[in-house]
Write a structure and sequence with these properties.
Length: 232
């Protein structure tokens, strides 16, 4: 498929990006010093591209890679507790063939869904600056242009605001879990971010995340997981 080739070319461009000096310095410092529990692993230490089904009808849009998660593994939302929570939900709702994402080459596949982030490099304290966000959003614009998706599940207020900025929606509707807003050609769905702060305190439960993902499937017109070809 042509868009697969173009997505692969965009991925190569994203991975080689060095636009933001602060983020470059941080992601590479983390990759050198490592966390003790991962001291024998080779960290990715580069921008993390989007991942998923090139024929996706739904995009899950996050904040940025985690320093010892995707910055280590090279796959978005992979290798940390947030990702564990998200991929378990994607498996329950029929979007992933496995409930756990461990590393780039573990055989996990997504069906009908693409995962991306507003910022592609791990930021210090998980807080990108507005300038870093705006430097990265053109990559998302190009990514969306290559996908046929019209539904975006925004994980957290940062992703919600970034999506609205990208799509030029003014005034910005307020973020809320379960919010639904038409923004240009997209329908945005708000969902609390699956951070440990939210999942450990019950702010976001598995049932809440499953409901948002199931609603995204419904809005995409792709039916229920039982209607899909069985993933293996």
């Amino acid at each position: 498929m042509l868009n697969s080739e173009e997505l692969a070319a965009l991925e190569r461009e994203i991975v080689s990006c060095r636009r933001c000096p602060r983020l470059v310095a941080w992601r590479e410092e983390v990759a050198r010093e490592k966390r003790a529990s991962f001291k024998d692993e080779t960290y990715w230490g580069r921008p993390v591209p989007g991942f998923g089904d090139p024929a996706a009808s739904i995009v899950v849009f996050g904040l940025a890679p985690a320093a010892h998660g995707a910055n280590r593994t090279g796959r978005i939302f992979t290798g940390d507790r947030s990702g564990d929570f998200l991929f378990a939900a994607l498996h329950r709702t029929g979007f992933a063939n496995k409930p756990v994402s461990l590393h780039k080459d573990d055989g996990l596949r997504l069906s009908g869904l693409w995962i991306s982030a507003a910022v592609r490099c791990a930021p210090p304290q998980n807080k990108p600056t507005p300038e870093e966000r705006d430097a990265c959003l053109p990559y998302t614009a190009r990514e969306l242009g290559l996908l046929d998706a019209k539904i975006m599940v925004c994980l957290g207020a940062f992703a919600w605001d970034a999506a609205l900025r990208l799509l030029g929606t003014r005034p910005k509707p307020k973020f809320a879990h379960g919010a639904e807003v038409a923004a240009g050609p997209f329908m945005l769905l708000g969902c609390y971010h699956p951070s440990q702060q939210n999942t450990f305190t019950g702010v976001l439960t598995p049932e809440m995340l499953d409901t948002v993902l199931s609603r995204a499937r419904q809005l995409s017109g792709k039916g229920t997981p039982e209607d899909d070809v069985l993933l293996s």
